[in-house]
Specification:
The protein has about 300 residues and is an alpha/beta fold. It has 10 helices and 10 strands. The strands form 3 sheets. The protein has a 5-stranded parallel sheet with strand order 2-3-4-5-6. Helix 3 runs parallel beside helix 5, helix 5 crosses helix 6 and helix 9 crosses helix 10. The chain is globular and about 60 Å long.
């Protein structure tokens, strides 16, 4: 059945729920009842779906029994699980690519066990020490993928391997856009997706990762026009942005979706015109990010309702 504003999957990202707890234990060590507390909190905020973000819980490292319990707790809380996002698990990380590749394969298997339809991955790598010292890590440069044909080929072949595994399990793979990686511009992201050439592999046009940079950026409208026809999942967030180009001053900070530099009214129009049918995932850095994300979910459903009516 065609998606409606009410049935479109819009998930909560779990940025506000870290894997490492204050007492030194991890969420991996928790009983399922503790996972349920997080799900209940997400449901109470108004969400009906959740992205099982690996920064909260590494589902690829759970046993079969734990996966069954996780699936039960999410369903009991009234939450669908349309996607899992893996963060900073680059398969071309010079030191950790083998571990990252293996973990992504395990996560794809876990997604199948959980009934999750999409796994989002990226090429961004661990934060540098300088980034960790900032209030907002994106205000200083991090890792940059090399301008190197051999490394590009490694990215293509390793993601093809993951996409083929996912396809065998009827799972979509989505590639998250992120600065200074091969997914760091619209043209490069589309080129990488095209070179991978797998029907179940699409883009995650998370342009929030790009408009927050304290440097010149590409026009977000043009970027969306290029990437949305190739997209199958979408992390949505927004940022306030100011520019003084004459003095080369650029600043940005997190904003609710309706207030930031990206007009999501226009962005959703582009998405609908492009035939986008993937799930959305709301995320927000700083403050009560879950509540801001919940406000964004309501705003997004309102846009979908109004704009889908326009298209009739």
């Amino acid at each position: 059945m065609p998606l409606t504003a009410e049935t479109w999957p819009i998930a909560a990202m779990l940025l506000q729920f870290p894997n490492q707890k204050r007492d030194g234990t991890t969420v991996q060590d928790d009983p399922p009842e503790a996972w349920r507390e997080v799900f209940d909190e997400v449901r109470a905020a108004g969400f009906t779906a959740v992205d099982l973000t690996d920064g909260w819980l590494r589902v690829g490292d759970l046993s079969a029994e734990q996966l069954d319990a996780l699936k039960h707790e999410a369903a009991s809380a009234g939450l669908a699980t349309p996607a899992i996002s893996l963060v900073r698990r680059s398969v071309i990380d010079a030191e950790n690519w083998q571990d990252n590749l293996a973990f992504t394969h395990r996560t794809i298997d876990a997604a199948a066990a959980l009934g999750v339809g999409t796994v989002s991955i990226g090429l961004h790598q661990a934060l540098t020490d300088a980034q960790k010292q900032q209030l907002w890590f994106w205000t200083v440069d991090g890792h940059k993928d090399p301008d190197d044909a051999d490394t590009w080929r490694k990215a293509v072949t390793r993601i093809q391997e993951l996409a083929d595994h996912a396809a065998d399990l009827k799972i979509e793979l989505s590639l998250e856009m992120y600065e200074d990686t091969y997914l760091g511009t619209a043209d490069s992201a589309v080129r990488l997706k095209t070179d991978i050439d797998r029907p179940n592999c699409g883009l995650n046009p998370d342009l929030g990762n790009l408009v927050r940079l304290h440097r010149p950026i590409e026009d977000w409208r043009e970027a969306l026009k290029k990437t949305l026809p190739h997209s199958n999942y979408w992390h949505v967030k927004n940022y306030y942005r100011d520019e003084d180009r004459a003095n080369e001053i650029y600043v940005a900070s997190p904003a609710p979706m309706e207030f930031g530099i990206i007009s999501y009214r226009e962005a959703i129009k582009i998405a609908l015109a492009s035939g986008y049918t993937g799930a959305f995932c709301c995320e927000h850095y700083g403050g009560d990010g879950l509540s801001v994300s919940a406000t964004n979910e309501k705003y997004l459903r309102g846009l979908l309702k109004a704009l889908k009516k326009e298209n009739r």
